[in-house]
Predict the 3D structure of the following.
Amino acid sequence: MTEHSTGAEIERVIQLLARLPGLGPRSARRAVLHLMKNRHTLLEPLAEALHRASEAVRTCSECGNLDTRDPCGICSSTRRRRDVICVVEDVSDLWALERAGAFNGIYHVTGGVLSAIEGITPEDLNIPRLVERAGAAEVSEVILALNATVEGQTTGHYIAEALKDCNVRVTRLAHGVPVGGELEYLDEGTLTAALKARS
Amino acid sequence: MTEHSTGAEIERVIQLLARLPGLGPRSARRAVLHLMKNRHTLLEPLAEALHRASEAVRTCSECGNLDTRDPCGICSSTRRRRDVICVVEDVSDLWALERAGAFNGIYHVTGGVLSAIEGITPEDLNIPRLVERAGAAEVSEVILALNATVEGQTTGHYIAEALKDCNVRVTRLAHGVPVGGELEYLDEGTLTAALKARS
């Protein structure tokens, strides 16, 4: 597309939107047109909302969550248990657990997994801070809710090792058949785990 | 998701992004996280670019294109032929033709197709203005580049009829086998059209 036909301003929005996950250049163009056609109801509110979020949202210095407050709403809540810390890889995992509504403790976001190849060390993952938090007298359990990938599990092992001297129980999410899942389409690893953990 | 865990600012961006075509609530959340993690390189520039686009971009009063100028870059270009007007349904079609780079005339964007059910009339599609533009002495051809749908073709017929008294040739895009397309997967209508128009 030439600047001639669209203008540098539109072109710039397309380029930036195309960098979002799930959007390519083609869908970014469609999105821009949709924005332009709904200028007052969508384009202007979105520009404003992004600007506000960029001003207001910060990373919680306690747990790594994103919120307008630091400590975040979860860390500063009086209604949450402070004896269980749930360790997740990413803020999106924290959000997923919050949507499930099944956990009422506090979190620790590592922001990634250990990787020798990418040079990601325990310090990068804020693990020393986790050990410090887990060492507090009030904490009795650390749940490792890391992804069930090789990297996630390796990181889990490392964290469990690092927490050995803290007086906490280290637990892990159960493996098993997803709710609504069909056995026929499950991999052998999951089936074996589900069978072993039968109750 | 509760406000507690994400903050109203993030929630607002998710809601707005989820209204873009191609993004649902789930991908909007992923997009927001990606934005937050790339605050300086993506979130702030995007907020700024949207704000600028919303200030600067307008609809061309000549052809209906979107640009920062009115008349738009195409309408005001001295390098484009002014004797051929290409009629398209949507700005996205105009962009697609510009990407193809095969047309060097000017455009007329209808902004939709005639629809009795949705109450879309020739006036809504800016057809009187098209008739006026096509009546100019310099114009010799109007190309109907409307979608090959029933509504697109009906609208094309209506426009051709409306242009009868203008001294212009009304042409249409050819039907045929898409470049790279396999006959086996083409519908009968396209195959029949391609066969009839063989050369």
